[in-house]
Amino acid sequence: MNVALDRTLILLIEHKEMMFQLIDYMDQNQRKDLPAEVFYNSIRAKLENIGNKKEADRDRLNNAFDLGNLIKTGIVSESNKSRGTIAFQPAVLEIFRLFDKERVRGLSSADLENIRVQLEGAHQRLESLSFADDNIDFLEQHDQLFDLLRRINSQIQSNTDHLQFEADRLSQRLDHDQALLSLNESRQHREILAQVKKIYDREIIPTLEFLNAREYSKTKAPLTVIDDISRLYDIRGHEADSLYIDQYKLSILSHYKAVEKVKQALQRYLHQERRHRLTYDAIEKAYLNLQALAQSTFTESLKEKYIFKSLDSETLYFYGLKTHAAGQEARIEWHDRNHMVYFNEYLIQQSARKRSDSSAQIKTFKDKQQNDRHNAIKRRIEQLVKQFDIKPPVDDLYVVVHNLLAEELKQDYQLNYLLYGVSSFKQRYGKKFKVQVSFNRPQQSIRYQNQVLEYNKREFIL
Amino acid sequence: MISNELSQAIYNDLVKGKTINKHSYIVKTNELEENPLYNEVFINFDEYRQLYQRINFDLIHKNSSFFFIREINGGDANEATIKIQALLIIIGRIVTEKGYLFDVLTDHRAGIGLEDLSVAMSEERYSDILHTCKLCISRSIEEEINSHLIIRGIMFKNSRGHYVLSDAGTAFFNELTES
């Protein structure tokens, strides 16, 4: 069933989001037509959304959006079955673009060049004609010229709106993404910077050149051509029309400042983009150089397969940086202990063992030699711990044993004996009472004669 | 006037092949702060330079952003510096090749995770280069980055556990771009 053009257009406008999707598809894929499949899928999705409840609505839309009906009403101007594509009437698409600033198209470099050529053509044709009021050719060219000027004025206006909108949109996104906290955000940021560059190079600069009233080096600036046409009208006695043409020129030229502002707004992002591009190029160059060096080593003998000889040391950025004992550093950092204490303890054990070898032959030990307690100081510590009358609760066992040993051993006392003292204490009283360890940070510390012992506090409780 | 306390800390770092950066990263606040060691050397540069010259080292101030020492008349093999340079170039390449913004590597709040680096570096094209630089042969990439870049102060790990270029690391890429 056929639906009239006005009804079909009204229905399309009522459901403009569907048309927006199709326009977006064409813009994203940079084409003027679209695959019929995409069109059918959009219609299908639209109809499914309406559902069965509003059957009358669905039928109405189905009839209106039927491809046959759209062709008949002229909304679809081209349907190529062999290629499977359809194309909407450009004027229809322009109407929908006007509904949403985001979808207003800018003028590309090619569009602007096309306008310039049209203006030059109009000028040449008018120059060869007589400006008589009964000359039909002149009257036709005259109408054509004013249509063209009106169209240029409107296109430049839309183009300025589009550029301002795009600049705002991209700036907002770039400023919002300033904190590049994730890799994906950073990738998006870079893509937006690339869009800025594209708009700058392909739309802003050509527009500014188009609006520049000065001469081009090879071709005439479009506004100069309009000036020439105006002068032609003036010379040939059409002052009113000449004035009208001048007004069009001024109206077109008035967009220069607005576009210049957009250019300035985007320039800082452009600078950012340039900086990134230079960094990327430099890294790529350095990487390829490194790769080439690595590959050149593959053909040599195994012994020489490392690239160290191929690089000139003077060109290395960190040339001369001291070779670092990383292993040693790592080990020191890995153990969160005071190694001085452990090392001293080790020396005590070693010297005690040496002494024990000689004292083992002394008969006073008889047949009951002590296992590991040959160190005189250690024996004294054991004795002190044994004699020490301590009752729970004790808040910090280390402090108590430290005070005891420091007082009794006097100048013989070193901080590393404290570990042995606490250990003896635990052996002696551990079964009877309870020792509770608390792992608080920072650890407790005892400082004695330039030595520091860091430890986890041990509470002595019942 | 040279501070005894700071000069000991400076010597301790420089002699171990570490760089002294203009800024140091504070994990607790996730912020960069001025490095007192850098300021100390910067203010008393002539004295420090003389001091290190007497013990056969050149005190180098690079790109106005970090210090390190170099043995006068060479002495140290350049193997370590090639390793550092190769690691930095490959990390930079991974970031740019994946289409990320390079600022990810220099922003102390962002950085690149070990997982992203490990996956990329396991690719043959990168591992081939690393092997010819005697890297990642018996050690993991994390160990290599730690021992060549983190300990030397060319990169640091931020509070998210991501790797970020320090002043020294950033200066390397700046010079690469300008050259």
User: Largest sheet of chain B, order of strands side by side?
Assistant: 1-5-4
| Span between termini of chain A | 98 Å
Number of strands of chain B: 7
Helix share of residues of chain A? 55-70%
Report what the structure shows.
The complex is a heterodimer of chains A (462) and B (179). Chain A is mostly helical and 462 residues long. Chain A has three domains: 5-103; 109-286; 342-360 and 371-461, no CATH class. Helix content of chain A is 64%, strand content 7%. Chain A contains 17 helices and seven strands. Chain A has helices at residues 5-14, 16-28, 36-50, 55-64, 67-73, 90-99, 109-127, 136-176, 183-211, 222-235, 239-253, 255-298, 326-334, 339-359, 376-387, 397-409, 416-429; strands at 34-35, 76-80, 85-88, 434-438, 444-448, 451-455, 457-461. In chain A, strands 1-3-2 form a three-stranded antiparallel sheet. A two-stranded antiparallel ribbon of chain A has the order 4-7. Chain A has a two-stranded antiparallel sheet with strand order 5-6. In chain A, a hairpin with a 4-residue loop joins strand 2 and strand 3 (85-88). In chain A, helix 7 runs parallel beside helix 10 (222-235), helix 10 (222-235) packs antiparallel against helix 11 and helix 16 crosses helix 17 (416-429). The radius of gyration of chain A is 45 Å and the shape is elongated. Chain B is α+β, with helices and mostly antiparallel strands and 179 residues long. Chain B has two domains: 4-71; 79-178. Chain B contains nine helices and seven strands. In chain B, the strands form three sheets. In chain B, strands 1-5-4 form a three-stranded antiparallel sheet, with helices on both faces. In chain B, strands 2-3 form a two-stranded antiparallel sheet. A two-stranded antiparallel sheet of chain B has the order 6-7. The model of chain B has no long low-confidence stretch (mean pLDDT 89). At the A-B interface, helix 9, helix 12 and helix 13 of A face strand 4, strand 5, helix 4, helix 7 and helix 8 of B.
